[in-house]
Prior knowledge:
Bound molecules: manganese (II) ion
Distance between the termini: 30 Å
Helix content: 40-55%
Number of helices: 8
Shape: globular
Structural class: mainly alpha
Strand order of the largest sheet: 2-1-3
Amino acid sequence: MKFELPKLPYEVSALEPVIGRQTVELHYGKHFQTYITNLNNLIAGTKYENMELVDIVKDSEGPLFNNAGQALNHNIYFLSFSPDGGGEPTGKLAEAIKKDFGDFENFKKEFNAAAVSVFGSGWAWLAKDASGKLSIVKEPNGGNPVTKGLVPLLGFDVWEHAYYLDYQNRRPDHVNALWNIIDWRAVESRY
Ligand code: MN
């Protein structure tokens, strides 16, 4: 099997109460694993077999795009959290947020509005272009801003499987709480 689940840098219960143990066990251990298993099955014996994940997402469509996209998305998602997270970014990313969104609070407000307004299943992303300019991108289903030539920095998964056990229909509460566990050092490393 070419692609594998990344090891979580925290215990499955470490993100409570923002994300509960059972949600991490199912979301990481079952949903994410299934995307990776499907991806490996779909690329076996094809031209995609030896491609990087990002390149597969850029080049594919249909079931392969869906599963490769979700494999990429969840790699970024699960490695963006820490029980010691929260606060604000520093350094160049902090400067870029100030430049492109005014200040961190306004960035959060715009990002939350994007995440809450994704209709059905999808993602809200913070992405950068080749010049480092930031933007907030909404993607349906398993979409990722790499297909628009952008680099994904941070993604909020707003599929119901990400929050329903902990928040039921209250997506805005879930989105609001996620800021308390963001590992900004991980996000800054992508900028
Ligand atoms: Mn998910």
